[in-house]
Amino acid sequence: xxxxxxxxxxxxxxxxxxxxxxxxxxxxxxxxxxxxxxxxxxxxxxxxxxxxxxxxxxxxxxxxxxxxxxxxxxxxxxxxxxxxxxxxxxxxxxxxxxxxxxxxxxxxxxxxxxxxxxxxxxxxxxxxxxxxxxxxxxxxxxxxxxxxxxxxxxxxxxxxxxxxxxxxxxxxxxxxxxxxxxxxxxxxxxxxxxxxxxxxxxxxxxxxxxxxxxxxxxxxxxxxxxxxxxxxxxxxxxxxxxxxxxxxxxxxxxxxxxxxxxxxxxxxxxxxxxxxxxxxxxxxxxxxxxxxxxxxxxxxxxxxxxxxxxxxxxxxxxxxxxxxxxxxxxxxxxxxxxxxxxxxxxxxxxxxxxx
Length: 355
Prior knowledge:
There is one protein chain. This protein is mainly beta. It has a single domain (2-354), classed as monomeric porin ompg (Porin, Beta Barrel), CATH 2.40.160. Helices cover 7% and strands 49% of the residues. A 14-stranded antiparallel beta barrel has the order 1-2-3-6-7-8-9-12-13-14-15-16-17-18. A hairpin with a 3-residue loop joins strand 14 (273-282) and strand 15. It is elongated.
């Protein structure tokens, strides 16, 4: 019965990834700008963003909730992560992310909770009479994503997970809410379990639509003498669905580990991306990583086809200290940098506690 359950779950997870594959593998430039909720494409975590999200096949712990939820199954006890990101420095856009992951017991899987909040500072309210704003107040747009996931080891080699996301966007007196699902699988092989493969599906869900008082106005209807409140209907928009396929290889030495990882991202509404990353680890006390993310027209100007401010290079580091060697608990500080043009890059700094 247990074997039947295991294979059934694996089949369901594979089906969730493969079934929409024909629709998701597109990278269609003609559809650029048609999707909303683009904050779902931003990695808020300091560790994995340091090597350009290339580690979708080998990511472990809570941060896997963003890249490949199957990686949360490797949580050994309790994990808490916090990260603060200055997105495209100079734009006053900040991202705060927090999450907790908990192992439920032997062979019972891991449940995780994560929250990402994106703020844009104070923006002047503008009207037809005051197109430059000033004197009539300000508003603060905010974006919020809440994730709840479950992952489990189905064998010594196969790990799978599923993630449910609540999406909330607010701009002045207009808002939109939505739901999305992620699913992922990781496969580990090799004599020293140093070869890893992964595939994940992200941001699949129903369309979203804005509503609120900001879409209403006072107007006159033909045949009526008195003005009425008229509500405009906003167009619905799709979520930025995608597929990630990755692989990694660990070169293991006595006290050192060198990991090479690669990832292909097939986007439904933007250009496909190729990521390559390299990570060096010394006893897990010091970790250095770097990466490069490429997409078509990356070396062109914006007026010649480039559609992203991120120019490719990424880098990061982790400094980790043991709290209790017997229990394997630890505390680490993480940092990552993503180059951009224009603006002064994206900086993320965070802390991680394993208990």
